[in-house]
Structure formats: structure tokens, C-alpha cells
Design brief:
This protein is mainly α and 307 residues long. The chain is built from 12 helices and no strands. Helix content is 77%, strand content 0%. The protein is globular and about 55 Å long.
């Protein structure tokens, strides 16, 4: 990126708004803690699928589905990514409502470094010395948290690995972020809707079942909270240099960490702080190295981020 590059303000604010929304999402899901996590995920699938499909019809007409049918291999792979993102959503919402927001934020801190490791293992990419140092520091942080806290930070690792695998497949497919979410929603919509109907008929549902209009509205608007940040992100990455987007992405886990520690009152003892510190140091090395490399080459296309 040259020093003379002008940054589109609308794109910049679109990126910032998206990452802030993702970072504050724990507060939203926490308001729904009376609803089982599985049902929250099912509602998230149904309402976001409807909203994204409507957006695609308005912006692209019926042609958006023909674009997918023209690439049957991509359509099949999006079925796999739909399962990965559903797992990621479910684990994250469960973590929030089980009091593990801080560990959830850790998953999105280490995600960029997990992406690097997958690039080496799957795409046969090679790491430079700075990237090896970054990965080693993050691994040391995870090892320290495992020893100090007496258990593997499996929530963080589950979130990071599932989202990294999701991002890797979406990178290989090179499908537009919103279009891809629309196809994933199409795969998941009918099973999710059928499950919700069954839960309501069996008396286990929490939608229009006496829990109050506020809960019903929160469940519906959860679909908008899924789709709107992604649409804003897709808008931003076409207008803002990738290196800047890469730095801005840490707004999200930082806000999640602050929400967990300062608002929801989760413990953040010294032992955990040291483990986070090693991971943050690794990220700093990774970010500086990425910035240095960006000065010598054109920015790469961004991969979609969904929470």
C-alpha cells in the first residue's frame, strides 16, 4: 500500500461499524439466556436466511441463484461451510450464555494465526521467520493457559478452528461473502424451520409461547445482527486496503473481552492475563510483519467474517 493511497471514508466506517457490532454481540445474546442456545441458533439461521435472500433479490434479482447453479462444485462446498458456521455460531452463543465470553474472545484473537497454520498444512504455504515467531508465541500462550488454568481452552480452540476451516474453504471457493451466506442459508433454512416448528408444537419452544414480545423480537432481530455486519464488511473490503481491514478486525475480540470482564463480570486473573499477553505479542509480531509485506505487494482479497 503506497503512502498516497486514499481511504474511502464510507468503506472505513462500514468496516468499523461491522467490527463494533460483532464485538458487542455478547450483550445481545446475553439478553436471550433464558432461551436454549440451540433454539437461538435455529432462529438466527431462519431470520438471517430470509433477510439475506431478500437483500440478494433486491440487489441482484433472481440471477443470484443462477450464479450458484453455474458452479455446482462451489454450491456443494457451501453445504460444508454451512455446517461449519452453524457449529461456530452454536458454540459461541453457548459460550456467551454459559459465562465464557472472555474465552470466546480468545478464539477470535488466535484465529488469524490458526489461518496461517492451516495455510502451511493445507495450502503448502511457507512461513517467514517472523510468522514462525508469531505462531510460537500464540502456542506458548495456549500452553500456558492450559497449565495455569488446569484445562485446555477448548472453547477458544473450537471457535478458532471451526472459523479458520470455514474461512479456508470460502477462500478456496472465492465466492462473494453475502452471496455465499445466502447459499448457506438456503441449505440450512428448511431444517432449521422444521426444528423450530417441532419445538413449538411440542411445547419446548420459546417463540410466541408466553415468554414475552421482547424475547420474540430479540430472536427475530438476531437474524439482522447476523446479516447486517457481514453486508457492511463486504461493502468495506472493496473500498479499504486489506492491511487496514486486517488491523481493524481486532476491534471485535477486544470489545468482547471488555464486555466479558467489565460488563458481565467474568474473572480475568493474572494467570489468564499472562496467557493472553503472549498471544497478543504474537499478534503484534504478525501484524507488523503483514504491514511490512504489504508495502511491497498488492493487497490480497479479504475473507468473510461471520459471528
Amino acid at each position: 500500500m503506497s503512502t498516497g493511497t486514499r481511504i474511502d471514508r464510507a468503506g472505513l466506517w462500514g468496516a468499523v461499524a461491522s467490527f463494533v457490532l460483532w464485538g458487542l454481540m455478547p450483550l445481545y445474546w446475553h439478553q436471550l439466556k433464558v432461551v436454549p442456545s440451540l433454539q437461538i441458533v435455529l432462529h438466527r439461521i431462519v431470520w438471517s436466511a430470509l433477510l439475506v435472500a431478500l437483500w440478494l433479490v433486491v440487489t441482484q434479482g433472481g440471477g443470484w441463484w443462477r450464479k450458484v447453479k453455474a458452479r455446482p462444485r462451489a454450491a456443494a462446498m457451501l453445504g460444508v461451510t454451512s455446517l461449519l458456521i452453524t457449529f461456530n455460531w452454536g458454540l459461541y452463543i453457548w459460550a456467551v450464555n454459559a459465562g465464557h465470553v472472555i474465552e470466546g474472545s480468545l478464539g477470535y484473537y488466535i484465529n488469524p494465526l490458526v489461518n496461517v497454520v492451516l495455510g502451511v498444512l493445507v495450502l503448502r504455504e511457507r512461513l517467514n521467520p517472523a510468522q514462525w515467531v508469531a505462531v510460537a508465541l500464540a502456542a506458548a500462550g495456549v500452553l500456558w493457559l492450559t497449565v495455569a488454568l488446569g484445562q485446555l481452552p477448548w472453547i477458544a480452540l473450537g471457535l478458532a478452528l471451526s472459523f479458520a476451516a470455514y474461512g479456508l474453504l470460502r477462500k478456496v471457493l472465492a465466492v462473494d461473502a453475502v452471496l455465499g451466506l445466502g447459499v448457506e442459508g438456503a441449505y440450512l433454512f428448511l431444517p432449521a424451520l422444521a426444528a423450530l416448528v417441532w419445538l413449538e408444537l411440542s411445547g419446548q419452544g420459546h417463540f410466541t409461547s408466553g415468554w414475552g414480545l421482547g424475547i420474540d423480537l430479540l430472536l427475530v432481530l438476531g437474524g439482522a445482527l447476523t446479516a447486517l455486519p457481514l453486508i457492511g464488511f463486504a461493502f468495506a473490503v472493496r473500498r479499504v486496503p486489506y492491511t487496514i481491514v486486517g488491523m481493524l478486525q481486532y476491534i471485535s475480540p477486544t470489545l468482547q473481552l471488555l464486555v466479558g470482564a467489565l460488563v458481565l463480570g467474568e474473572a480475568f486473573p493474572r494467570e489468564r492475563m499472562l496467557g493472553f499477553g503472549l498471544i497478543w505479542l504474537g499478534l503484534a509480531v504478525f501484524a507488523v510483519d503483514g504491514w511490512r509485506q504489504s508495502r511491497h505487494r498488492a493487497p490480497a482479497p479479504a475473507t468473510p467474517m461471520e459471528r
